[in-house]
Amino acid sequence: MATLRVPEIIPSPTQDSERLRKAFEGLGTDEKGIIWILGHRNASQRKKIRDTYQQLYNESLIDRLHSELSGDFRNAVILWTYDPPERDAKLANAALKTKNKGINQLQVIIEIACASSPDHLMAVRQAYCSLFECSLEEDITLNISSLPLRKLLVGLVSSYRYDREVVDLNLADSEAAKLHEAIQMKHLDHDHVVWILGTRNFFQLRETFECYKQKFRNSIDQDIKSCGNGDLESMLGVIIWCISFPEKHFAEVIRAAIVGLGTDEDSLTRAIVTRAEIDMMKIRGEYFNMNNTSLDNAVIGDTSGDYKDFLMTLLGARI
Amino acid sequence: MATLRVPEIIPSPTQDSERLRKAFEGLGTDEKGIIWILGHRNASQRKKIRDTYQQLYNESLIDRLHSELSGDFRNAVILWTYDPPERDAKLANAALKTKNKGINQLQVIIEIACASSPDHLMAVRQAYCSLFECSLEEDITLNISSLPLRKLLVGLVSSYRYDREVVDLNLADSEAAKLHEAIQMKHLDHDHVVWILGTRNFFQLRETFECYKQKFRNSIDQDIKSCGNGDLESMLGVIIWCISFPEKHFAEVIRAAIVGLGTDEDSLTRAIVTRAEIDMMKIRGEYFNMNNTSLDNAVIGDTSGDYKDFLMTLLGARI
């Protein structure tokens, strides 16, 4: 369930474009107007607005937003305004080009591969090729020096999983055993691990993880943790979490972005922008279960100004 | 260059559907009429005919062709009438379900992955999921017991290569060395081999193979052959051939289908049906260079009746 609120009667893309244009013109920018329009339109409506704005004014809406806004607010509005596959291709590219990147940066790629639909992942790969003159997989091999991390990530982003609920219990049983064997041998990038995680449908994988717990007492992520606390173990933890409970994963991303001194605005923005149209209602519930406090209050407490208003709009608040 | 001949003025899909219907009705089937219509329409025209026929007569054109025709002629016409991604998904599935399959059966999967456009491969994977309730990769892991063959094939069908001519000479040099090292160690399914063959664009790979030859004197397929004559070596040979010279590969498929006693109609049909709209003109030229005889004469000599007429129509002959 999404938290995005789209009005029952939607202005035409031309009306929206004209109002956006008005918000950009004159002395100062009307940020509230921009939030009011873009923060209440879904992906296909935003696409029509982008196209119509370009036709009407012969300028890119994204470029204009870039020149009118600033800071975290700008980043959030622009990420939201992109077509989702293009947005995710850009996020993946930025993560890969980060120096000294760790799992914290790379988890956006896992989210695209393991917490999105197979068709979305395919669209991201197509967008990546269009934008960056090479495939996503090539940039992974180029920018990730650890061979086991590289092998897992290439396997995951190359997947095109079957998208309906078909589960084979015998297969879950035998693949739980194969995963257990690889974990026992501490061979976490074994070919079988890559094949299982990178080809099976999500329903089948959840059954396999459940089967693992029943057969071997511990959950698979507990057993992986006991192999060590390096990047490979962390990455596998994120992969299993994204497949099993994407809402818990994103609740945790938001918690980690907010907790302690300072805020990790990039992660906070990413989680809210990428999930507001998908499962943010569930993430909000999960956040409450995990932290005994509301996600909305946490965001209000850690952000301010237009940035806060925009995120809260995506979270369904009536600003 | 294609050999398919599409008339300058094309009847409407409704006219074509009506004529096909007429060819089916009455005593006996008018095979010549079917060849005349379907054998002169490209993929998007055939799609319109399929859709229009279904709407007009509330029956599937494919089903009707199946009940009206028989033998190799039927197989060829039906394969040609399918949407190309659906056709290739069915060919891949049939190959995987064959008992005692060898490289001869599996090469259709290599052709889809290495001698087609990246977008076509993606469309085949989507069609596969729609038709068979699992992903192509899952059926590869299920049906191919040899782990090295499985690893290579999963890597290849999962690729989504960059589709334009961008070549990095230094990369070609360093990856030629990596391939050479893997071949020297006889470790032909090394992760690096799978990454290089499964992620690089075709132009880059051709440069890498060229570089290999310059650095190490032998061509890469010669060196692979010297590792042994098992399935893995044969498969890598087909992969390199499909990437480097798809027209030579298909000329060889046709030659092998025709040579000796009896004809391998399935391979002959596959090569002509899948390439008539792509590069059959080049394949024909290559066939002549390799065999000093014309492909058309070879097909005429080894086939007969409606089957021969249909193949020759796809080869551009005026029947």
Task: Give a quick summary of the entry.
The structure is a homodimer of 319-residue chains. Chain A is an all-alpha fold and 319 residues long.
Q: In total, how many beta strands of chain A? A: 0
Number of domains of chain A: 4
Q: Helix amount of chain A, in percent? A: over 70%
The major β-sheet of chain A equals: none
GO molecular function (chains A, B): calcium ion binding; calcium-dependent phospholipid binding; phosphatidylserine binding
Protein name (chains A, B): Annexin
Binding site for Ca(2+) 3 (chains A, B): 303
InterPro entries (chains A, B): Annexin, Annexin_repeat, Annexin_repeat_CS, Annexin_sf, AnnexinD_plant
Topology:
The structure is a homodimer of 319-residue chains.
Chain A: H1 13-24, H2 31-38, H3 43-57, H4 61-68, H5 71-81, H6 84-97, H7 103-114, H8 118-132, H9 136-143, H10 147-157, H11 169-184, H12 191-199, H13 202-216, H14 220-225, H15 231-244, H16 246-258, H17 265-275, H18 280-291, H19 295-302, H20 305-314
Helix pairs in contact in A: 1-2, 1-3, 2-20, 4-5, 5-17, 5-20, 6-7, 6-8, 6-9, 7-15, 9-10, 10-12, 11-13, 15-16, 16-17, 16-18, 16-19
